[in-house]
Amino acid sequence: MEGSASKNSERSQATSNDGCPKCSYTGTLNTFKWVQPEGYPIPYQVATVELCDCHYERQFRKYNATETFTPKEKEYTFKNAIIDDSNIEQYTVAIDFVKNIKQHMEDGMWLYIFGDEIRVSEVSKEKGFTLEAYGTGKTFMMQCMANAFSHRRIPAIYVTEESLFGDIKATYDKGSEESEHEILNRYYNVPILMIDDIFTAPYKEWAEGKLFSILDERQKKNKVTIMTSNYALGRISQRLPLNGGKIASRIKGQSILIEMIGPDRRENKRTA
Ligand SMILES: [Zn+2]
Question: What is the pTM for the complete model shown?
């Protein structure tokens, strides 16, 4: 599969500066499309600008979602996930999201994977048996997605909310290599941003404000955002008194939702 000759030639094309023969290293392709609006008798051509494949290839070298994964985490895939009656619906949605990722990147679709203990106690009462909100495999599911993106060489960043804020704070130290502006720009613009355990930070105005600006920019720029959370949408404003309502409405307007409640799977040594 890894034909080394063809792989090497691909690599040298993409890294040399006058590089990509398809787009002359501009990263975009100017093409023409035939269109025929309804009620108009003759088809005609319009110029369109499309992203060249080398655009994402170059970004992938900077942004590989699994870069910080342990060797074990790199093995978490949809193929070896434990999928059963209690989570097959949820996995179907996650797998479809990955399959349709190119379309989602055009539309700026988001995915919100959540399990909320308050919801769980309501649903458990309704159903007459006990479900769990924690340990149901939200992180595991998102790691499977990250591995799938990495395998397909699709640029993405995977962070916990904690390390996201840590990255920003580190720029306040003297001698920091990157500025806050640079870090924020990376989080505003990366094609796919995956935030694990969002809304868990001990919130201060500062953190709320940063989180809001990241999500707000990503919505405006049509960038895919994937999150895991212990909060149903209706409870976000309890966590974030200043911006929670605005953040929840952005997530609601932009996201496919996956609710993960069910048996605690941590006994299977699979998840956190
Ligand atoms: Zn190109």
Answer: 0.83
Handedness of CA 125, 240, 160, 94 (dihedral sign): positive
Domains defined for the chain, CATH in brackets: 4-53 (no CATH), 63-268 (3.40.50.300)
100 CA → ligand 1 middle, Å: 22
The label of the residue with tokens 């895919």 reads 224
Q: What spacing in Å lies between the alpha carbon of 26 and ligand 1's midpoint? A: 7
CA-to-CA separations, 223 to 104, 152, 207, 263, 264, in angstroms, rounded = 9, 18, 21, 33, 32
- 197 CB neighbour count, 10 Å cutoff: 18
Q: CA 81, CA 99: separation in Å to the nearest integer? A: 17
102 CA to middle of ligand 1, Å? 17
**What pLDDT score does 267 carry?**
58
Each residue of 28-75: pLDDT tens digit? 888 888 888 888 888 888 888 888 888 888 899 999 999 999 999 999
Q: Which residue, 142, 112, 118, is CA-closest to 219?
A: 112
With a cut of 60, say whether residue 272 has pLDDT above it: no
Neighbours of ion ligand 1 (CB under 5 A): 20, 22-23, 52, 54
Report which of 244, 261, 251 is spatially closest to residue 111, judged by C-alpha positions: 251
* Residue 115's pLDDT band (cuts 50, 70, 90): very high
More confidently predicted of 55 and 5: 55
